[in-house]
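Re: folding output
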Amino acid sequence: MAFSLFRLARFIRSIFVPTASIVAFSCLLTFIFVLYQPTPGPGSIQKLGWQSWDVVSEGSSLASGGYAESVEAGSTGSESGSVPEGVDWWNVTATETVDTASLPLDVWDPLMQHDTGLSEIHITDCMVDPWFVPSVAADFCFPSSTKEDDATKGKWVRVERNLKEQLSLKSLNVYYRRTRRHDIPLITELRVLPDKETPSPFSHAWKRVAYPVSPRGDKRYLWYKAEKTWREMTEAERKNSLVTEIDVLFGSDQPWYGFEKVDQAVYDGMRNIEPVWLTYRKGIKPPPRAPPLHFSRDGRFKVMQVADLHYSVSVGSCRDTVISPCTASDNLTNTLLGHVLDIEKPDMVVFTGDQLNGQGYTWDGRSVLAKFAKAVTERGIPWAAIFGNHDDEDGMTREAQIKYMQGLPYSLVEEGPKDVHGVGNYVLKVKSADPSKTHLLTLYFLDSGSYYTGVWDWWGIFHPTEYDYLRQNQIDWFLQESSSIDAIERPFIPDGAKDLGGIWARQNGQVVPGERRLAKPNALMFFHIPMQESYSAADVNPATGLPLDVGQHDLEESGAAKKQDGFFHKGLLQALESDHRAGGRATEVKVVANGHCHVTENCRRVKGVWLCFGGGGSYSGYGKIGFDRRFRIYDISDYGETIRTYKRTEHDDIVDDMILAGRAAPPPYEGTA
């Protein structure tokens, strides 16, 4: 067919009209929904904004449930030297002022100490878990609302805990509104009741959430009581009766600190499915802070190492024990731990990794973190922790675990620098009890990681093949921290000024200094996975000709990583207690404490450094019949000069009591690094 300009023009004309119409309509929609931004008129300033202060306040801007709350911090408030007469310096704490009015109202975080109340609760069953697709969930899963309700009652906030976590790919979430207004009734009571039951005594203030709160089985409904407004409540009711946060607990153990369980579980559990509870907090309940670490007046400081608890969301299953019947191993371990704490009365507890069991048993890490340190926090003992290879296996990141551990009572846990490998590389210092507050003992904590390599199978399951190890930037960080520590005159003598009376008189049996020297304080170091040097040949005691290796170590294979960056030689052996030539080659770190290997509990000295294992103390972790559960104690005396260690077993036996440093310790290492 011959080419024709007429036919081409007719074709173009035939498609021009529909094409132009589509383009014009698209431009119109773009203008209306994207480009067109109408200027608010003068009437807009009269509308209620999102929790607008100028509408709801009654005078002071901090009077509406948002006031400056003083929370005790762990740091001493006596840095300026103003310590009241007769008061120990570590008991004078600074106050950290938290302006609760600045806390966001539309963010769920159970660690935030809100004093504002909740006005309404809703429950939504959604086809998709909002955690996976938050943008979709905002449209399809959140309860409906209006601008007026958002302004008066508060925006909907999702409690980021899926009640159907164990049961379905769908989600069942609790939502609430939080408000600062004074004229909205606020929630003071929560109850979970079966269908067709009502709270007793019943009043018009009780409201039932329309959708069942039970994830499976018989229907149970959540009731809440919202009777009084903020204005109508007394100060005592605002502090003690006002519900300020809602959370969810999986399992049968205790809820998060400051929270209480609703009187009935939303799901009772069955076989391998754990119970589910709603929990709530009333008022503000900040966790108590640990006081600064310090020696006693007679120069003593005791550390108890707790290794490899392996707690689960459930109550745990007993492993490798002659106890029969043995049930609820987590609870049994907690009882044993409490018993040893009551006998030893340590000044500090260190959890050396694998607090969480991992391996699919800690699918809700927060429920496990709520209970693992219970025996310690109930006794008001300061504690620190490091991570093991199992702690983050089931999805909860180490950064998130640090955040929640810092929200527990008496915690000394720190995240450490972000540019160093791992999470939880930090230093704690133990000071003298006299007014000089001299740094007498250093405690190093490092993250030895989890797994260096592994393979993924067809089912998406990771199978580790090699353990992780301490990296070069951790070596650099340790050497930098060590170099920043000032030398002190050792052995230390406390301030004996006459104006202090006789409280600092030297006690019988203490070190009487012969030749004093300038040197860094002794140090202990804690990390989970041992180094290869823990299995190297031990130093020989020149006085006896015997290897310096005390304790059991041949009951299992090596737990060390196959790869390493040389932390022992490039780090530990290079950080000396004194830079002076006359100080010799004595290392600053006298003891390295590891976990990881449950039936290994020896202390072996290698090139002057003691490498010690804690031994398993939990019935929830693997063990060996005939090998008692045990906890290692480090008893430091003489103001940090003498380091003694031993293990206390489940039968209260003291095993391998020995001196690692100080008087009566083996002769110092004379070889080369």
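--- second protein (sequence, then structure) ---
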Amino acid sequence: MEMIEHAIRENSLVGAFAFVGLIMWISVHLSRKLTFGRVHGSAIAIVIGLALAYWGGIQTGGSKGLADLKLFAGIGLMGGAMMRDFAIVATAFEVQVDEAKKAGLVGVMALLLGTIIPFIVGASVAWSMGYTDAVAMTTIGAGAVTYIVGPVTGAAIGASSDLMALAIATGLIKAIMVMVFTPVAARFMGLDNPRSAMVFGGLAGTVSGVSAGLAATDRRLVPYGALVATFHTGLGCLLGPSVLFLATKAIVG
């Protein structure tokens, strides 16, 4: 047993892949036996991952969930920004240009609506919770776009670290909701072709949520949803500190 633990610690990233593979195997098995395939194994794996992250945080008092345990340190690298960005770039190579062109104006409109509507909802919730100044409302509203747009916008307009933390938390909650509920609502939304996946990616916005949600629905749709969702962060970072902030300031003063 000590030999296995030593091997995992010395090869933490390999151990992380093996551990995630085990979770996926268990999740697929649970999907088949408990839900008869109605809930995809990836969705179950996401819930298990969140539960393990919560348990890891309680056990260590840290901030990285299960990755704070030395045995699972590789998960921090595997789930970090570098691997995420590699995965996003890799998905782009699977896109068929002819299919991507089919999104057309609808995809562009979805991208704009997916930026503006979450911002309005986030800013409105912030106002209802007592954050009534333009900087706070814009920062939290931007967090509802994605958890990256929130802190970028906040830093640009002079928000405090507390507000940026709230923005990140808002974006994470949104990403988790998209991850978990996409497979459940896929049939209702008509997520069965590349064009609908691109529209969904534009409306949902969060790359991690869209990628995981579509993977749990039909992995062939992941490149198309992720392609549009990738632009979402850039668009949000452009509009957040400028147009959206100025509009919010004009309304609330």
